[in-house]
Amino acid sequence: MSGKQREYRGRIRSTQSLKKIFRAMELIAASRIGKARQRLGESAPYTRAIQRAISSVAYHSHTDHPLTSDRDDTNRVAVLVITADRGMAGAYSANVIREAERLRERLEANGKEVVQYASGRRAVSYYRFRNRELAAEWDDGSDSPKFERAIEIADTLYDAFSAAPEDGGVSEIHVVYTRFNSMVNQEPWVIRMLPIEIVEGVSEPSAEVTPLYDFEPSAEEVLDSLLPRYIRARIFTCLLQAAASELANRQRAMNTAVTNAEDIIRQYTRLANSARQAEITQEISEIVSGADALAAGS
Amino acid sequence: MAATISVFIVAPDQTLWSGTARSVSAPTVEGSIGLLAQHEPVLSVLRAGTVAVVADDGARTELPITGGFLSFDEDTVTIVTDPGSGVAAAE
């Protein structure tokens, strides 16, 4: 076997083993995505319940809570980016980071100073590489987020929001994540977490007399205990959506990788075959011309 | 006549209990609250304790919770519990 042929065979073999890896990762992503979507569904009642309760409080009391009102004593704003821990998910992380950078430009154009938070190793390494300062970072478990992680992130952001300006307090909190619309459609999405805009899930600005709510112990205290839970639930939902999107992206990327590997294998097989034929042709012509030379010599 | 209320008890990652019930009682920060149908709308902060639900077939379910809050409106009670609730009640 000549050098050329051996080279092609080697490439085919390595591509074949890569293809097996891609296929395995596609199957793993496919099996996890069901679970991720299920968890997203299971967390929905909780978030919905909290959202409904918050809008009820907002409607039936006239409390000015710091979490719902704008603060203008600082121009620092926090941006949390949620990406994957690992690559191999196509442009998933790159898209979220690009969206985050766009948001950053927009905020800076408005005279804000951005404090960056990152979840997921891809975002962390992106900002590290560019020597950008991260206020806090979380990694590990991006494809199956735990509620404890959501609490950690939410409490950190909440602390930053309630801190005084000189202690690094921020006036707004934005979250950039990937929204899971469907198996084939996920998009980078920006939400403003704080101050809360109470517009979603508004159910009853109807003409009838709204019932008088009884708050126990008081509207302020109910809101005090509701809002941190609300932020946790929102962050958790974001994490779950990002996880489902990550897995869907990974499945798609790996599927493409398998197809590409098959293409490469087919190409190299053809090249190897033609190299083999060329070698045989060459050997035949060598033998024939050798025999000719011998016949001519005798 | 049996006036019933619909009950949803949810945790961050699952629904712990849902269905129709005759009464619900829950531990609030100020004591304890018992809810029957036609109760006035209420939003309340809960402390750690036990939520008891009497289903419309008379079966009584008790769920330990670590905290949360409760909202009642139009004969629907929603109890949002903190993580770690309902563990002992897993049947």
From TrEMBL, chain A:
Membrane-crossing segments per the record: none
Alphabetized Pfam families for the sequence: ATP-synt
Subcellular location: Cell membrane; Membrane
Membrane disposition: Peripheral membrane protein
Keyword list, A-Z: ATP synthesis, Cell membrane, CF(1), Hydrogen ion transport, Ion transport, Membrane, Transport
Protein role: Produces ATP from ADP in the presence of a proton gradient across the membrane. The gamma chain is believed to be important in regulating ATPase activity and the flow of protons through the CF(0) complex.
Family: Belongs to the ATPase gamma chain family.
Subunit structure: F-type ATPases have 2 components, CF(1) - the catalytic core - and CF(0) - the membrane proton channel. CF(1) has five subunits: alpha(3), beta(3), gamma(1), delta(1), epsilon(1). CF(0) has three main subunits: a, b and c.
Protein name listed in UniProt: ATP synthase gamma chain
Originating gene: atpG
From TrEMBL, chain B:
Coiled-coil region(s): none
Domain of life: Bacteria
Swiss-Prot/TrEMBL keywords: ATP synthesis, CF(1), Ion transport, Membrane, Transport
Database matches in Pfam families: ATP-synt_DE_N
Residue ranges occupied by any ATP synthase F1 complex delta/epsilon subunit N-terminal domain in the UniProt entry: 6-82
InterPro entries membership: ATP_synth_F1_dsu/esu, ATP_synth_F1_dsu/esu_N, ATPsynth_dsu/esu_N
Membrane-related topology note: Peripheral membrane protein
Subcellular location: Cell membrane
Keyword Transmembrane helix assigned: no
Similarity section: Belongs to the ATPase epsilon chain family.
Protein name: F0F1 ATP synthase subunit epsilon
Provenance organism: Demequina zhanjiangensis
Source organism phylogeny: Bacteria, Bacillati, Actinomycetota, Actinomycetes, Micrococcales
